[in-house]
Amino acid sequence: xxxxxxxxxxxxxxxxxxxxxxxxxxxxxxxxxxxxxxxxxxxxxxxxxxxxxxxxxxxxxxxxxxxxxxxxxxxxxxxxxxxxxxxxxxxxxxxxxxxxxxxxxxxxxxxxxxxxxxxxxxxxxxxxxxxxxxxxxxxxxxxxxxxxxxxxxxxxxxxxxxxxxxxxxxxxxxxxxxxxxxxxxxxxxxxxxx
Length: 194
Description:
disordered C terminus; globular; alpha/beta; 3-stranded antiparallel β-sheet; 2 domains
């Protein structure tokens, strides 16, 4: 929590996710509490509960330091309140960073969220099977420049490469498929004991 999200004991963390998903139980329950942070558990949608200000209301009411949600949720808020009129009703000065994961954070959504929040909006990439980020901007170690459409760099333990259709590694600036080599903790490391 500290290295990836820069969350310290006493801060308030909110993962707007279903607690049944790996993001939910890992980043609503275990992660923040093990880091000594306060966590927010919220049941509801980002819009229609009762309006598109649900996220901003919770951030204001509980002094949330960081919000972690899916780009789809951000897009839903944008669609319901494109001019961020609901945001203007709340004091979200406690919010340091908005983190997004679960799918690609498209540049248009990133630009909108960055503009209305005037805070870092950080994309990172991981999968249910990995349990944590494969690529991220390690905010608690050495924050890097944020680039729309990019989850920044591979996290410690991963080597992510872009390969062409024949599996050959391509350099920066090329399109292709990704290949990642997972952290040792997710590989079979059993030994046979005689």
